[in-house]
Amino acid sequence: MKETTTNNDAQNSEHPRPATCPRCNRPMHAPAGTEIRFCLECGAPITPDQVREKIVSLMLNGIRDDMRKAVARLEREDPEHYNRLAAIITGKAA
Q: pTM (2 decimals)?
């Protein structure tokens, strides 16, 4: 786990920011009284909420791509099952 900053802003924040960027490892500096949510160098999300959103987005994109490939393979290799699946999804199943 990354070391977190110990300044008052980070301690008072709901989500203390890391001392370094999780992507580019550059030191994280923000003007006093401000909160940064993205690395000023590479744009990586900094707080746990932004990191969580990025992970979910990447996972959904990966799942979407995997499902697209699986459906295309099913349609190509087993058209009968593909047609049954399509009928169920569209509500046209007997």
A: 0.41
